[in-house]
């Protein structure tokens, strides 16, 4: 692992800023000051920044059932009811993977692994996100076809990968919607464009990770957490 990458893994700084620290002479490897960011580091090496030993953060992966009213962001540090408030601080700095708006509930993954987060969220990987959606009236076959073919909205094309009707309810429809892209509020925008009101939206799966029987506000550690 290159030294600047190692420092980023330690939570010292981003790779670019870590490289700047190294060039300034702030980093020592096995007692020797190193000024080249791309020196290879092995597990046995002892790395210090300004004389303080540093070591890589352990990767954590958490599945959380986000309740309605919580926001899935860490950018607004003054916001009330953030998903990170539901996780003990002892897990360190975690961030949510992908979007789930305040009025929606269900599966949110929190981690400190940026590469993992990118694999989950970037459209090129095509990771499926599965939602249970309740809408305000019966969904007809014509509209299901339109949702799967795609709807143009605000310069974007919004498209459901799959839609399955779970059960008809009096004056409502409950269905499973599978998405891949992850655009902002895409499901709500799609149904609104066709005149449907979403009464409930819950994410139940991301790739091969599922909500299971987690109650609102509950979480579990996922395999791979160190």
The helicity comes to: 10-25%
N-to-C SSE string, H for helix and E for strand: HHEEEEEEEHEHEEEEHEEE
**Content of β-strand:** 25-35%
Number of strands: 15
Strand-pairing-aware structural class: alpha+beta
Q: Uncertain regions: pLDDT < 50 for 5+ in a row?
A: none
How does the major sheet shape up?
9 strands, mixed
N→C terminal distance: 19 Å
Morphology call: elongated
Radius of gyration over C-alpha positions, nearest whole angstrom: 22 Å
- Tally of helical segments: 5
What is the residue-averaged pLDDT?
A: 91
Question: Brief overview, please?
Answer:
With 226 residues, this protein is α+β, with helices and mostly antiparallel strands. The protein has helices spanning 3-9, 15-23, 114-121, 141-149, 186-193; strands spanning 27-29, 32-33, 47-49, 52-54, 61-66, 95-97, 105-111, 129-135, 151-153, 156-158, 162-169, 172-179, 198-206, 209-210, 219-221. It is built from 5 helices and 15 strands.
Looking at this protein, list some descriptive labels:
226 residues, alpha+beta, 9-stranded mixed beta sheet, 5 helices
């Amino acid at each position: 692992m290159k030294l600047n990458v190692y420092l980023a893994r330690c939570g010292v700084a981003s790779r670019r800023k870590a490289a700047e620290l190294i060039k300034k002479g702030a980093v020592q490897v096995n007692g020797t000051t190193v000024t080249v960011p791309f020196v290879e580091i092995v597990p046995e090496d002892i790395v210090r920044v300004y004389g303080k030993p540093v070591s890589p953060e352990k990767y954590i992966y958490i599945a959380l059932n986000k309740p309605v009213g919580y926001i899935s962001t860490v950018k607004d540090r003054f916001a009330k009811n953030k998903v990170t408030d539901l996780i003990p601080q002892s897990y360190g700095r975690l961030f949510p993977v992908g979007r789930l708006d305040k009025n929606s509930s269900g599966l949110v993954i929190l981690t400190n692994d940026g590469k993992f987060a990118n694999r989950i969220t970037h459209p090129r990987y095509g990771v499926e996100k599965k939602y249970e959606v309740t809408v305000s009236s019966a969904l007809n076959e014509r509209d299901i076809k339109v949702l799967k073919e795609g709807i143009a909205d605000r310069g974007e094309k919004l498209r459901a990968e799959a839609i399955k009707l779970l059960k008809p309810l009096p004056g409502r429809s409950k269905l499973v919607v599978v998405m891949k892209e992850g655009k902002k509020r895409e499901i709500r925008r799609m149904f609104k464009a066709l005149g449907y009101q979403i009464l409930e939206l819950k994410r139940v799966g991301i790739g091969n990770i599922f909500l299971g029987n987690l109650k609102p506000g509950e979480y579990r550690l996922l395999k791979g957490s160190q």
